[in-house]
Amino acid sequence: MTSVMLGGFPGLYTSLPEKTGTMDTLTLGALGVTFLIVGLWQRRLARDSDRENRARQSEAKARGKDKALAQHPQIREDLCLGCGSCVAACPEHDVIGLVGGVARIIHGSRCVGHGKCAEACPVGAITIGLGDVSRRPDIPVLSPALETSVPGLYIAGELGGVSLVRNAVEQGRRAVDDVARRLREEPAAKAPGVRDLLVVGAGPAGLSAVFRAAELGLDCAAISLEDVGGTVRKYPRRKLTLVQAVDVPLYGTLKESEYAKEDLLAMWSEVIARHGIRFRTGAALTGVTRRDGHLEAETAAGPVLARFVILALGRRGSPRKLGVPGEESERVLYELEDAASLRGQRVLVVGGGDSAVEAALGLAAQPGNRVALAYRKPDFFRLKSRNEERLRAAVRDGRLSVMMSTEVRAIAPGAVTLSRGGADEVLPNDWVFVFAGGEPPFPLLQRIGVRFGCAPAEAASA
Predict the structure, then answer these.
(1) Long-range contact list for 405-410, CB < 8 A, 24+ apart?
(2) pLDDT tens digits for range 280-323
(3) Extents of the domains making up the chain
């Protein structure tokens, strides 16, 4: 028997008899030609794909969409095999593409940091992280254990620049584990009224921290300005939340990749009830100072003393206002909890992020609604690919109108005044939903003494 390489592909062999007749020789020749044609076709496809990816990369860079805003894939090109597993695994599409035979960032702004690309990479060439934050005025400087520049003060979750429920849950647990370690290694006499730990915030990171503290038997206090669930509670009804498999302290593993917000809230409420965990809600944090070996948190409900504090406040803070006449109207809202409650209404949604688009789509799906989406920029900067596709379909089907480069000038009973292209127009209206982001709690952190990824003066002016 003789092994023959087919089509010029290393590793692809067939075994043939030593002596073959004329028919076998013709068959072998036909196979060789076939594999050669397939090889040339595959190479051409690879060249075409490479050319298309380079064009998309250049377009994304020209539109300012090539850079990631938060956590994102960091690719070691020296390890990359160019297999494309990461490209196929990404549910946002076009975040990564093969350029020059290796994986490169195409649309970095679309990345939400779920990490499926890293999981799919067979050689570990991809990690998910924030990259260099030394010049980021919006990212606090944290140790590997999530401790800030203020000794004993930790940050977990979105406030540290990392989004997704899974990441928040893991960070809440990690911060508490480090607190527990230090309590063991740095014992101190129990001072009257001083708790082991204070957790501020009741979103995914704060809840995970409190649950983990209960598992470890720590003396933990928990406060929050909002109800349990944090930002998740404000999501539209039945909104699917990207979670992925993660272990929740006191509960177990969440195995699905997505959960409706109601299911997450029910799970958290079940754990709180079963273990008798108490949250003091309505307690806004106003400051943290260090004295006599512990931290004193100043809150609207009075001071709380603890050896360690974990801030899980999120980044959204209070809703950002438009600052226009009529915004104080009761028909101007900053969150949408139940789109199905509005039917036969004229609705304006203001904003260009996923929250605004999801709200607009949800409202447009209700019978009789006429929905317009207004965004002050000429293009959407960072939308999940699924939302972008749904938005295009809704516009194409006439279920939703989109007005780019548009700003709200005034809100009056029954109408809103918009400015587009330097000209004002009046749009009949019953409700206005504003999704312009929030005012993050950075000034509070700076007063506390938390250092950001740039000089304090730069952070203040950013």
Answers:
(1) 405/375, 405/376, 405/377, 405/378, 406/374, 406/375, 406/376, 407/374, 407/376, 408/322, 408/324, 408/348, 408/350, 408/374, 408/432, 409/324, 410/324, 410/325, 410/326
(2) 988 889 999 998 889 999 998 899 999 999 999 987 777 888 99
(3) 2-60, 62-129, 153-317+441-461, 332-437
